[in-house]
Write a structure and sequence with these properties.
22% strand, two-stranded antiparallel ribbon, 172 residues, binds flavin mononucleotide
């Protein structure tokens, strides 16, 4: 089965989470492509989709939201999982879910949504971004928990294998 991992990432941290998810799925025998959501023209070739976005000022990236607008209707018959990445610090903050995520989950018919902790490196930020980070006193560092990411991806792989077996008609 071909699986699309579409990831909207401004500074690369969320893309690396997408790469880690892809690695687990590949290791489980799936044919995986990782792409920027803006580069996806068609979802027909894929049997399943994982869509992820970094969170800025409470929202998913525009590219991820546009992907939902373009493809939500066409993915109704295929399994979809969503992930967000943003919270930083120990414990990670902010704790709230990104805006509109409930509606995105509903529109995509997603089987799950997971929020992973992110990475904040002030040196790579634009001036306006640094101002926001200073204002909310966000903690700098890499808080991504790779074992959480790998566990989540492994559960997706299990679900997809079960789906393949169901499709082959072995289980009714
Ligand atoms: C200006 C700015 C605003 C942010 N706002 C949020 C936010 O509202 N919620 C959140 O969870 N993380 C927020 N973050 C943290 C980022 O989402 C986090 O650094 C993430 O790992 C960045 O991913 P990326 O490198 O893929 O862009 C913000 C970071 C910056 C620089």
């Amino acid at each position: 089965m071909r699986v699309l991992v579409a990831v909207a990432s401004r500074h690369g941290a969320t893309r690396e989470i997408g790469d880690a998810i892809a690695e687990v799925l590949q290791g489980d025998g799936f044919d995986v492509e990782v792409a920027d959501p803006d580069d996806v023209d068609d979802v027909e070739p894929y049997g399943a989709v994982v869509l992820g976005s970094s969170v800025y000022v409470g929202r998913w990236a525009a590219a991820a939201r546009a992907f939902v607008d373009r493809f939500a209707g066409r993915l109704a018959d295929r399994p979809v999982w969503l992930f967000s990445s943003g919270p930083v610090g120990d414990p990670p903050a902010p704790m709230g879910e990104p805006e509109e995520i409930a509606s995105i989950i509903r529109r995509m018919g997603a089987r799950g949504h997971k929020t992973f902790a992110g990475r904040l490196d002030r040196s790579g930020l634009a001036l306006a971004e640094r101002a926001v980070v200073a204002l909310v006193q966000a903690e700098q560092g890499d808080f991504r928990a790779w074992s959480d990411v790998q566990d989540w991806a492994a559960r997706i792989a299990e679900d997809l294998h079960a789906e393949e077996i169901r499709k082959l008609g072995f289980v009714t």
